[in-house]
Every structure is written in C-alpha cells, then in structure tokens.
Amino acid sequence: MDVENIVLNLRMLGKDDQTVEAKEGVGKSILETLSAFANSGGGIVLVGISESQGFQIVPGFDAKQAADQIRDRGEQITPPVRPTISIVPFEGGDLVVAEVDGFPSQDKPAYVTNRGMYGGSFQRVGDADIRLTQYEVDRMREERTQPRWDEQPVPGARLADLNSGMLESFVAKQRSSRPKTFADGDTVALQRLRVLRGEELTLAALLAMGDYPQEYYPRLTVAFSVYPGTSKGDVTTGFRFLDRKTVSGSIPEIVETTVELVSNNMRSGALIGDVFRKEIQDYPLVAVREAIVNALMHRDYSEQSQGSQVQVNMFVDRLEIMSPGGLYGGVTLQTLGEVGASSTRNQRLATFLESVEFPGGGIVAEGRGTGLAVIGKSLAENLQPEPSFRADLNSFTITFYRRRVAPQEKYATAEDRVRQVFSGVESASTTELVSETGLSRTAVQKAINKLIDEDFLEPTEPHRSPRQRYRRL
Predict the structure, then answer these.
(1) Do residues 408 and 320 lie in contact, with contact meaning Cβ atoms separated by under 8 Å?
(2) Disulfide engineering: 120 pairs with which of 42, 111, 138, 269, CB 3.0-4.6 Å?
(3) Cα 377 from Cα 348, distance rounded (Å)
(4) pLDDT beyond 80 at 312
(5) Residue 328 binned pLDDT confidence (cut-offs 50, 70, 90)
(6) Short-list 446, 431, 294, 297, CA closest to 372
C-alpha cells in the first residue's frame, strides 16, 4: 500500500473519495465510516491527517492511542468491524492506516450497535457516509435467506384469473416431466408446483400466466418512454416525450409489446448495394428482449417495491432498462456475466418462465444463466459496444449505446422497407404492409405511390377498391 500516493491523490482532489476517508482523530463519526465501508465493498481510513488543512499531518498526533481507539470503535459495530491497522511514518509524523474489508452479503448490514439496524446502517456514496433507508436495510437482510415474495398468495386471485391456454400448456409439460407430482390430483399438484397456495394464486403464477395481473398489482408494469434528447430534462417546452406508454399484461405479453415499441422507435440501416438482404438496427432485438426478460424476472417483488415499475427509456444516444432492486446474492458488478456467477432472487417465477411461452411461440426464459452472453454476442454482431451496468441497493440498470452509422451504410427509407416485403411475397395489401414494416398507414401509402411511379409496383384492383392489393412488376 502506497500511502504517499493515496495522500497525493487526496490533495489533488481536495476531498475524500469513495474508498478513502481522512480523519484528524478517532471520534464517534468513525463508527459511520466503518459501517459504510463494511457495507460498500471496503475502504481505507487514514487517521492523523487534516482535510481542512489540505491533508497535512496533525501535529502531536498519538498514533498508538488512535490505533487502540479504532479497534475499540470496531467492536461497537454489529457484526464487529476488525480492520487491518498499521502505523506508517509519513512526512515527519505518523499516520494510522485502517484497511476495512467489505463484508460478505450474509453479514450485511453492519450497523452501529447502539443505534440499531435501521438507524445505524450506512453505505459509502462518493466521499460521504449515507444512512441506509429501511428499504435498503431490508434488501440487505434478504441476502441472508432466499426471498419468497414470488411464492406469496395473491388475496382473491383464483385459477380463473390465469390464461387457460397458458395454464394447460404448463400443466401438460409438468405432467410429462414429473408425473408423481400429479398422483394426488391436479389441485394438489398445482399447490406443490406453487401455482396455488391453498385456493389462491401465487404472485409468480399470476405474473407468468395471468390474464391481467394488474387487476391486483396496478404498478407491476413496464413504463416505456422515448425522449427527444440525451436526458429526461433536455426539453422544457413542447413535446417532452416522443412516445410514452404503460405496458401491462402477463410477463410474456409485456416483453413482446415492449420489444415491439423499441423496434418501432428506432432506426434501421442497411449496407449500400445490399439493401434487401440485411437490416442493421440501432439495437439488436435479441439483446433488448433478453434484457427486458431479465428485468422482469429478477426485479424486486417485495411489498415495498410492488408500486415500482420496470422502466425502459430511449434517448437519442442510448437505451436504458432499469428494474427495481439491485443485484442479488453473490453477484456483483465485477462478477456479472462470469461463468458460475449467477443467483436468482425469484426462483419460482424463474421456474415458471422456463416453461411458459410467448404469444407467438418460444420459451420466455430459454437458456437461463446465459442471458448476458447472448446480449454480448448480439451486440458484437451488430457492431456495437458492450453494454454498461449500474447497480445499487434500489435498482439495476443496463444501458445499450446506439450504434454508430458506418460510412458504407444508409438508413432504410419507407420505400426500402416496402421493397423488402415484396422480396418475399407475391402481393400485399396496405394493412399487411403496415404490419410487416412497422410504419404508419400514411407512410406506407406514400411509399406505395412512389413505387408505382417508379414502375416497381402495380395495383391489382381498381382505384379505391376495398380489396386493393399491390404486386411487383
């Protein structure tokens, strides 16, 4: 440990930082710092140096006494914080250096004993020791045992609240793979599978297979927004949103609708000279779908968080997907995506999503544990940078950065998109073209008119016929 460089850095910054706290002596405030470092990944406390005096050595400082005081203060934390303490000669005096290790998740929160867990738990934010909220303390405590919020019964919710087709498909798969579960009848089997708790649905079953879960939980939705700038506050007059929707339904329905909204609000490019072979989009939909599934599957469903939505925000330069609740278990930002670094907050919900299908087919949570690998591969194939991640006790955010346009490509116009459709079909109506291209009816009709003028298309019926279709010349 290079104390000289640490102090030099503090002098350059003019203040403490995320992992270093300087103190003139050992007062009561060191309790908050010890708690904060233990709860936030660790840090270093330098004692015997004055921040107000430009991080100069404190004259007459008794380093041995300070070291003993730090040990005593550490025992006033629950669980005890026992830093590695060294006395280091520095610039004609002595400094006490206390290295605090971050606690494992099962030992958090570390709190000042005489203030109690909810009044004496702190975390490190920048150069400050910030008291944890009750919600944040509860989330730390949850790390000690497996959360069961997704298995809680939903008051008043019955089997009739589930989509009958999804339930039948789920039951058929379970009956085939675990016939003994059904030995005592379907009702008992559904209770064993945690579709039911008594006669009431579990939260996991309602979210995965429900007709309309928002009847019971109005805010368990996705808030989708498209902003005209690079931040939410860029525009103070006029249209603050280019598009804004609240997406509801079961998780499979929410994922499908949200992916469609993202698709409809982004650009598509194509290589010059090869317009009709492959579109290149701002964000690969495979990655978008995977990130939204993960957000809904791994979010916090505790009672305190049931009023919070997953947010999908599109800016001019990026796409952000934020879910309530931070990373769970032993997963950290440093280990995210590594082989073996996987932990599931909502085990029952994840199990259901491995069996239920999207409305158009395909398992919702196919290949669980490989999501980040799929995201990384699809971004690389789309010539995009890796995503970034941000996490705290309250939320987790993944950010995709909008793909830069290569010199040899161009954006696909409305006419290009309509041409693309006719590369695979004999004829199409205006309604079919709207569905296939994702464009508005007005844009499609304008494109059709241009392509007729260019002798690319011709109508098959008289003008204004309700059965009008178009075919390629």
Answers:
(1) no
(2) 111
(3) 28
(4) yes
(5) confident
(6) 294
Beta-carbon count within 10 A of 466 CB = 6
- Dist CA 32 CA 364 (whole Å): 44
3-class secondary structure for 206-255? HHHHECCHHHCCCCCCEEEEECCCCCCCCCCCCCCCCEEEEECCCHHHHH
- Per-residue pLDDT tens digits for 39-80: 998 999 999 999 999 999 999 999 999 999 999 999 999 999
Q: How far apart are the first and last CA of the chain?
A: 76
What is the SS3 string spanning 358-381? CCCCCECCCCCCCHHHHHHHHHHH
Residue 19 is which amino acid? T
Question: DSSP per residue over 289-351, as a string?
Answer: HHHHHHHHHHS--SGGGTT--EEEEE-SSEEEEEEES---TT--TTTTTSTT----S-HHHHH
Determine phi and psi for 307, rounding to 5 degrees: -95, 5
Mean pLDDT of the chain: 89
User: How crowded is residue 265: how many other Cβ atoms within 10 Å of its Cβ?
Assistant: 16
- If phi over 0 gives left and psi between -120 and 50 gives alpha, with beta otherwise, what is residue 95? beta
Better-scored residue on pLDDT, 370 or 112: 112
pLDDT band at 416 (very low <50, low <70, confident <90, very high): confident
Partnered with residue 90 across adjacent β-strands are 93
Number of neighbouring beta carbons within 10 Å of residue 122: 25
Q: Can you tell me the distance from the alpha carbon of 321 to that of 388, in angstroms, rounded to the nearest whole number?
A: 11
**Paired tokens of 280:** 């290149």
CB 77 within 8 A of CB 39: no
Half-sphere exposure of 62 (CA within 13 A, CB side): 7
CA dihedral 411, 417, 422, 423 (to 10 degrees): 30
Rounded Cα–Cα distance for residues 295 and 147 (Å): 17
Angle, CA of 350, 354 and 356, to the nearest 5°: 110
- For the record, the structure tokens of 411 come out as 């954006």
